[in-house]
Specification:
alpha+beta; oxygen-dependent coproporphyrinogen oxidase; seven-stranded antiparallel β-sheet
């Protein structure tokens, strides 16, 4: 069964990213929770909080068993009749303290299931960046890192996965993107299992290295109370997306997962109230988000 190997690989990824986050903020305190799923399997959730650079981070591993895949796992896939599934994944979210440092998200996942007594499998995942203040060089670095990853495997892959990311991480009710994008892929099972597995593991590694680089560039930049207030206000968009549209959140809830782990990605502090006039900040951010999607 492929899930056993993937579980080992994904647990290793979880540990590597936890170590990387601890190097970003030496004050990090982590809390590990081991849990079991009601239909089989379980996971390890790691919640992290720092007192200097990181308000909150979460690095969660799960591998659950069920009889029927939730609708969120099959959305837009066209696949029907899947059952007896195993879903294994790692998800990461980082909410930095400094508003000049972007919020970041990554997840990789693997599904095994049966359809008409036949075994099927696929990978999915990706990463994206949600900034509050950002410049062109940061955007180009983030995008180029994603493109270099894709080009190792197949020319043209980046264009498709970047477009997927732009389309997915979008808030229709706000008519605006959540961030500058990155990569998003799903139902990946070609050309073969080994290649798909290596791409997913490389995806996590690229995220770790790229985000660590940008984080270190920004973490000590000075900021004002108004800029911090803007960060808390824009975090509201992150909450809206996760609760309304995020398929990972929906999958976790629909499959009867642990609510504390599913909602661990939400920021520790957020507001929908404007203490200041944010017009200038909003205009600058929208300009950079528009640039990133070209």
């Amino acid at each position: 069964m492929k899930t056993n190997e993937i579980s080992r690989n994904f647990k290793n990824i979880q540990n590597k990213i936890i170590k990387a986050i601890k190097t970003l903020d030496s004050t990090i305190v982590k809390k590990l929770s081991t849990w079991k799923h009601k239909t089989g399997g379980g996971g390890i959730s790691c919640e992290m909080q720092g007192s200097k650079y990181i308000d909150k981070a979460a690095v969660n591993f799960s591998s659950i068993v069920g009889d029927k895949l939730p609708p969120s796992a099959l959305q837009k896939s066209g696949v029907r009749g899947l059952n007896k599934f195993r879903a294994t994944g790692v998800s990461v979210i980082i909410h930095p303290s400094n508003p000049k440092t972007a919020c970041a998200h990554m997840n990789i996942r693997f599904f095994e299931a049966k359809v008409n007594k036949k075994d099927v499998w696929w990978f999915g995942g990706g990463f994206d960046l949600t900034p509050y203040f950002i410049n062109k060089s940061d955007i180009y670095y983030w995008k180029n890192s994603a493109k270099e990853l894709c080009d190792k495997y197949k020319k043209g892959m980046y264009r498709e996965y970047n477009e997927n990311c732009n389309n997915y991480f979008f808030l229709p009710h706000r008519n605006e993107p959540r961030g500058i994008g990155g990569l998003f892929y799903d139902q990946m099972n070609s050309p073969d299992y080994r290649t798909c597995k290596e791409f997913s593991l490389d995806c996590a590694e690229t995220f770790k290295n790229s985000y660590s680089y940008l984080f270190d560039l920004k973490k000590d930049k000075t900021y004002t109370k108004k800029e911090k207030s803007f960060q808390l206000y824009r975090r509201g968009r992150y909450v809206e997306f996760n609760l309304l549209y995020d398929r990972g959140t929906l999958f976790g809830l629909q499959s009867g997962g642990r609510a504390e782990s599913i909602l661990m990605s939400l920021p520790p502090e957020v507001t929908w109230n404007k203490k200041y006039d944010f017009t200038k900040y909003e205009n600058n951010l929208m300009e950079m988000l528009s640039l990133a999607r070209k």
